[in-house]
Amino acid sequence: MIGTRLMKVADYVTGTSVADIGSDHAYLPIYLVEQQRIERAVAGEVVEGPFQAAVRNVRSEGLADKIQVRLGSGLEVIDSGEVDCITICGMGGPLISDILLTGRAKLASRPRLILQSNIHSEAVRQALQTLGYKIIAEDILKEKKHIYEIIVAEEGVMSLTEAEMKFGPLLLQEQSETFNEKWQKEYRHLTAILETIKELPAQHKKKEEIERQLQLYQEVIHFAD
């Protein structure tokens, strides 16, 4: 029912209860309960269609007594202290960041956060640092030609450098093949953009910012000879 991406997210779940925010069809909570990884879950979904699909899926698996499907935006679907762990998967980094910052009151009990962003994970790390969370694990994986990042955080203090914020402090240490594939591709993309705007006076500020980013990439990424 779930692919490699959500399977890896499931590996980081701790405690007995989970809130899966933006749960879509509730595949992750269903998997966690069926595998007896947790005792109960909340599946939160803001869109009516996926919400109804999640309700049907939970009922068809006979898990309505263990998984509550709730319609609502972000962390408003849970109470503070209700769950041990919160998962937010399959969204852009800025949206995950907004969900966390908007719902910060629901993080008072300091649940573990497992955040799988599709793009712009830097925004997630910035939010975690602001909220008093520390990254304890990171993962990067490829599924169906797409590369995803997973960030796991618990209560703690961290102060990330610019490079750590962009690339991930632990991913940066590991420098996996998938990590380098992702950022080499991004480097080529930025280089192509720079080539198209470098002679345009109106794009001077953008040109300077891209050049600064490319310099950061060159300091960090392992390029093939």
Automatic annotation (TrEMBL):
Domain of life: Bacteria
Organism this protein belongs to: Macrococcus bovicus
SUPFAM superfamilies: S-adenosyl-L-methionine-dependent methyltransferases (SSF53335)
MF terms (GO), sorted A to Z: tRNA (adenine(22)-N1)-methyltransferase activity
Keyword 4Fe-4S: no
The keyword Methyltransferase belongs to this UniProt entry's keyword annotation: yes
InterPro entries: SAM-dependent_MTases_sf, TrmK
Protein's UniProt name: tRNA (Adenine(22)-N(1))-methyltransferase TrmK
GO terms classed as biological process: methylation
Keywords for this protein: Methyltransferase, Transferase
